[in-house]
Specification:
mainly beta, seven-stranded mixed β-sheet, about 30% strand
Length: about 130
């Protein structure tokens, strides 16, 4: 069975793709788009592939980072999906050590796809309504 974690959304902005390899960076992902993450990767000189649409029931995009040479955990791709099968927005971060699916919403409302076994780490980001962004 896949381990499911719940994390509170935190204030602040992601300034570097490398931040996505940390829990602190992941907790800042709410309201970020693949387009914005792609722009960060470009500004950092990571030479990301062009953003492209994804197949499936939701609306999403993806891109790869072929030349990322960070030490330790290396981000190699980012993908988003909105709605669709799971009925929630998420961003998947692919690394050289596996993938992390960051889902925005209540884990009790997530629709699991029984034909597609979940792999990697799954984190639900709870939005604290009392915190400002």
């Amino acid at each position: 069975m896949v381990k499911i974690e719940v994390m509170e959304a935190t204030e602040g902005k992601i300034g570097s793709i490398k931040e996505l390899s940390t829990d602190e960076g992941i907790s800042k992902l709410k309201n970020k788009t693949v387009e914005e993450l792609h722009e960060i990767a470009e500004k950092e000189g990571l030479n990301p592939s062009e953003r492209e649409g994804i197949d499936g029931t939701g609306i999403g995009e993806k891109f790869k980072i072929p030349n990322y040479d960070g030490k330790g955990k290396k981000i190699i791709g980012i993908r988003s999906d909105s709605g669709g099968t799971h009925n929630m927005d998420y961003i998947r971060i692919d690394t050289n050590q596996g993938s992390t699916k960051v889902i925005f919403g209540d884990p009790n409302k997530y629709k699991y796809n029984m034909t597609n076994k979940e792999k990697g780490r799954i984190i639900f980001i709870n939005e604290n309504k009392n915190k400002k962004r």
